[in-house]
């Protein structure tokens, strides 16, 4: 059984981002990029399923610029078998990403697609659900536990009020939440081995999809800043201020 | 053409997120060119959900409630629900979901089936086709224009006031269920049982971070929360460390909150956490590290060891 895992190259989560002076977007030159953290969880889950003998092959896909090869390479070092880069320098939005992934799913015929629930750059939280809809597949979003048994996938999902468990027919789409697993660091030998693993490059046109943006970003601004308030000297002073100054308790 | 709000409910009653979403929909209706003829409708899809539909009919500003009753909708499964909403959406110029785990699960499926782009987590309705939404954990605010004929969005509840729960008298119309693809089934749910208010609806929240050191130590937080009638939250670090369940998490990938008072205890103030609480009216930070970034956003900062400060605070609040 084959799995397809989608990974996105994003500005590293430790980078303090800056809005461009002309308000056209966020500064991305000379900024560290890495794999979207939720996608690392997706790769790790696929690798664990393969190690448990539940999967035979892991295909890693990324949609983005040529540098997204490095992101795929990271996933291959973690245990992916081969990669496919859908190369585009445009702003490829979630619906177009979902269409590109659908085209690859049609070709590769995986039984399972695993993606991060959300990319930490545009914070959309859309692609997995869109892909599942385009394929007519069931989905297990915000997954904190997967049990793959025969033709069924039992997914425990993080929901606002706690968690819930669904039973899905395969093939299915899963999006990962934080507690699903703790991703491994690739070992040096595995990083070396990953350099020899194949990565195929295709264009959106090769897949027969239109990847042009559907949403137009008119401007990007800094959020209003909160200024630091005062330091209080004691718990008693804090309570007094909350009661009499802020009047919130 | 009107705006359709997808209600989040438990069949018996509406979740508060629905009321905030109605306000956003009313704003879009008012900004639509022929605003006078644009109504706000609410879809209640569930099983034995008439009580929730009746509550929706009372919301001020809602003209019509669509009620779809089917066993397939009882637990909010995305596959059948998205087909239902897609079938209805073609009659609307806007479809708004609350940006909760419920809305986020279903909405993108509808967008894909309609072949329209989705606007996630909108925080302002700028015009009939433009919206503001936070990106990069709220470190930038994008104004985004949708050229699609249906504006499909999830709405961040904290950015819109709650619509009045009473005052309306909408008609309730039953709608036919859509097909159920039958590829998914609800097995069970494990709801966090708590006597405390829900995080996203609470007036006061007391949250703990990595500094709490263990899950057991959260009893110190709970003691203070109970004195204040507050909800208990946590940073991602505390969830990652296994101190508390994920549904406590406040932040970029957890819950977005904006209470009257937010008390951050042993939380350093990573941007991922600030993204979830920086719109709170008053922020209090208690941390022993006076360089912690949380103090840069706190109205009141107390540099102290939380293991002394929390019991003191509970005692002070009892006075």
3D structure, described in words:
The complex is a heterodimer of chains A (249) and B (319). Helices cover 27% and strands 31% of the residues of chain A. With 249 residues, chain A is α/β, with parallel strands linked by helices. In chain A, the strands form 2 sheets. Chain A has a 9-stranded mixed β-sheet with strand order 9-8-7-10-6-1-4-5-11, sandwiched between helices. In chain A, strand 7 (139-149) and strand 8 form a beta hairpin. Chain B has 8 helices and 16 strands. In chain B, strands 5-9-4-1-2-3-10 form a 7-stranded parallel β-sheet, with helices on both faces. In chain B, strands 13-12-14-15-16 form a 5-stranded parallel β-sheet. In chain B, strands 6-7-8 form a 3-stranded antiparallel β-sheet. Chain B is globular. The interface between A and B is large, with 79 and 91 residues. Strand 9 of chain A pairs antiparallel with strand 11 of chain B, so a sheet runs across the interface.
Number of strands of chain B: 16
Rg of chain A (C-alpha, Å): 21 Å
Please tell me how large the radius of gyration of chain B is: 21 Å
Largest sheet of chain A at a glance? Answer: 9 strands, mixed
Shape, per Cα inertia axes of chain B: globular
